[in-house]
Specification:
- The protein is built from ten helices and ten strands.
- It is α/β, with parallel strands linked by helices.
- It has one domain: P-loop containing nucleotide triphosphate hydrolases (Rossmann fold).
- Strand 1 and strand 2 form a beta hairpin.
- The protein is globular.
């Protein structure tokens, strides 16, 4: 579905991403892990078009999208969320969903914008189903700025899913959430296992153990381990670089 070949990103003298190869298959769920400064967010931004690589290529279904804009990638089927929630805060929950549905299902034109009333979409089965799936029915009339962070995060992911992307890219979806809110977000994300291709960057690795099928660990701009959850976390290079466990420390523990 998505493939990066030899992707590199430099910011002046800083080598943020260093010759990274990556791919994901349809309906696979992959987590990208790394400490601050590991290059994971920069790599994520390269995949979504927020940055363009200094070297290397990015392909979507075999098509070269290396220098496509984020908007063009969304049109192809790649949709992302951000570390900070990105919603229309002065509108209601259902209005946010109605705007996304309109953008995804109607040809954008002045005529359509003028003659399509957002309230006419309130009873749309897809919007109603999304409200139910993401546990937002009870707050659908609430102005977004008055939501809790957990509710707002669920709304943002709901908006991304309603856009019907082929690949959903989640940038730290659990950031800043309380334990109860984390469970809520994971509960709705879990409903997409086997139905959605998902890439997520996340620090709270223990929470995504049963969610991701494959883990990719980055350090200093490179992928240092890739594979199943436990296999990756116990990889010698991951223990040294991410957990900062030296071989002599392991010997002492033994």
């Amino acid at each position: 579905m998505l493939k990066a070949q030899g992707v590199t990103k430099r910011f002046g003298n800083l080598l943020a991403v260093n010759n990274v190869d990556f791919s994901i298959n349809e309906f696979e769920i992959v987590g990208i892990l790394g400490s601050n400064g590991a290059g994971k967010t920069t790599f994520f931004n390269l995949l979504t078009g927020l940055f363009f690589p200094t070297d290397g290529k990015i392909y979507y279904k075999g098509q070269d999208i290396t220098f496509m804009s984020p908007q063009e990638r969304v049109s192809l089927g790649l949709t992302r969320t951000f570390q900070l929630t990105s919603t229309f805060d002065s509108l209601s929950v259902i209005d946010n969903l109605a705007l996304v549905y309109f953008r995804s299902n109607f040809k954008t034109s002045i005529q359509n914008l003028l003659f399509t009333r957002r309230k006419s979409l309130y009873g749309n089965p897809e919007i109603l189903s999304t409200l139910e799936t993401f546990d937002l029915e009870l707050v659908k009339e609430r102005i977004v700025k008055n939501l809790s962070l957990g509710e707002k995060r669920r709304l943002e992911i709901a908006m991304a899913v309603l856009a019907k992307p082929e690949i959903l890219l989640l940038d730290e979806p659990l950031a800043g959430l309380a334990e109860s809110e984390i469970k809520g977000v994971l509960r709705v994300l879990g409903r997409h296992i086997g139905k959605q291709t998902i890439i997520l960057v996340e620090h709270k690795i223990s929470h995504i153990k049963d969610f991701v099928e494959r883990l990719v660990v980055m350090h200093e701009g490179k992928i240092i381990a890739e594979g199943a959850y436990e296999e990756c976390l116990n990889h010698p290079e991951v223990r040294r670089s991410y957990w900062q466990i030296a071989p002599e420390d392991e010997a002492l523990d033994a």
